[in-house]
Structures are given as structure tokens and as C-alpha cells.
Fold this sequence. Notes:
By secondary structure, the chain is of the alpha+beta class. Helix content is 45%, strand content 20%. The protein has helices at 3-26, 34-39, 41-60, 99-113, 125-132; strands spanning 62-68, 75-76, 79-80, 91-96, 118-124, 138-143, 151-153. Strand 1 and strand 2 form a beta hairpin. Helix 1 runs antiparallel to helix 3 (41-60). The two termini are 30 Å apart.
Amino acid sequence: MSELKELIERFIELDEDLEEKIEKALETSDDLDEKFEEENEAQIDEMNEIYHEIEHMVFNEEFIFVSNAESEEKEVVALIISDDDEDAEEFVIPVYTDEEEAKIAIEEFKEQFGNNEFILDKKTGSEIVADHSDDEDFIGLAINAPQWDFVISSEDVHDCCE
């Protein structure tokens, strides 16, 4: 398993645990107090550090992405994330850490979109973000979607701290 995949899995695990703690705390109060933050400071700090490391790794990581092979021009598969009643159609590009994750996603895409023919391509995270940077509806990259619920904003993909 790649280091990036391990980091994301760790982040998701910490995030889900923190969400459970938040839900439990909100059962007895309308908002979270300073005590909650103090009690969970180490976990929050760890999540921030992991996310920052992920931001850097995504920039240089080579990902697999899926394109629809049946359109005239090769069309990258995108996932629409805006509501039906919104004018804009905000979207993310699903990217995959390995071929196994991509194959699982393709099976789900075939269920949703019919038996289209899909092909796999590879680019770094920074190249994929750059390819879509002119589109104001582009939100970021969905890593191993739909299996995972992890999106990194295009603005967060960077190589060095400023």
C-alpha cells in the first residue's frame, strides 16, 4: 500500500473518531466548548499534520484517472457535487492510488452510466489540477472515489509551504 493511501486511511479513521466524539458532545450541549477542544487537541493537531502531508504528497503523486473512451474527444470522468437546484455544476475529478481502486470505481461507473467503455490514464496530482484550473466549477480531487469520501481542494494541492 502506498504511503499516501496509508495517510489518507489514517486521516479518515481519525476524522470518523472525532465526528463520533462531536456527536456525543452535542447530545448534551448546543455547541462545543473549549474543554472539548483541549481534550481533543492532540487528535486535531495530528489530523492537521497528516492533512498537510497529504497536500504535499498529492502534488507529486502519480494518479490513475478514468476517461470515457466512447466520446469523440477523450472525456475525463468527473463527479458532480452541487445540488440539483444550483445553477453551477461544481465537480471533482476522481483519481486512484492504484489500478485495483480504479477497477472498482469503473464497475460502479458502468452501473451508473451504462456499459460505457472507460480507459485509464496517469498524471500527477499537480498536472490534473492544472488541467482544470481555468474551470471555476472545479473543486478538487476525490481520491479513490466513490469507495472513499475524501476530497482534497485544488487550492490545497501544493509542493511547499508559503
